């Protein structure tokens, strides 16, 4: 029975891993070979030209990686802090205004001011245009994550909170020393969502970033793809037919996927270890 379960799990794992592995293989395939023979698991001809084309702007690529990593780390930590504090406040029955702030968070899930007011607030009121904070603050709060953490905090035994109050701990001490260690599963889940959100974000850079030194990775890769598409569409009229023919159109897209998702894929097992460990942390001691 265990052998059958292991085989089933192995097959499911292979199904999950195979698409990304196939994309990696395609990114190392020669463009002409790909166009002639189609998508193959073992290419007729290998090539690294797609990566060479992308790394022609190597310094810009490294800067974009640095911007994305900085925004992801700072944004995730800030999001976890503000979301956990907000959710803990509205989860406590002793908080007088919990209904109002719960409604305030829920209301933003159903209605929002729209793109134009948001753009005006970020650029004209907060003056965040062409700063890293324009990539961090608009995504720092998420009402859905607040509701998830509020439900998680409500599930904590009241006896733990009361024991902290009896020992003379303040609300912040209870939150930092008792609630947070017991909330690692919820924090790990929200942290993973926030990390993926910040890492994959390109829309805020499109709106608020003009400085090329502050362009994140996803936005830079999109600009490269847009430039390539423009050259291909206007090759005949601009006399750039030979240049367009040499562009690694399909393989470069696969290389972009590898460059954009590779760090997250490699880092995820380490986060998963802490995530699984967090699932077993926290219990009442008799």
Automatic annotation (TrEMBL):
Its main location: membrane. PROSITE patterns: ABC_TM1. The keyword Nucleotide-binding does not apply. It holds the Pfam family BPD_transp_1. Residues 65-268 form the ABC transmembrane type-1 domain. Keywords: Cell membrane, Membrane, Transmembrane, Transmembrane helix, Transport. The keyword Transport applies. It comes from the Bacteria. It is a multi-pass membrane protein. InterPro entries: MetI-like, MetI-like_sf. CDD domains: TM_PBP2. The chain crosses the membrane at residues 7-28, 65-88, 100-126, 132-153, 174-199, 254-271. It is found in: Cell membrane. PANTHER family: ABC TRANSPORTER PERMEASE PROTEIN MG189-RELATED-RELATED, POLYGALACTURONAN_RHAMNOGALACTURONAN TRANSPORT SYSTEM PERMEASE PROTEIN YTCP. Belongs to the binding-protein-dependent transport system permease family. This is Carbohydrate ABC transporter permease. The lineage of its organism: Bacteria, Bacillati, Bacillota, Bacilli, Bacillales.
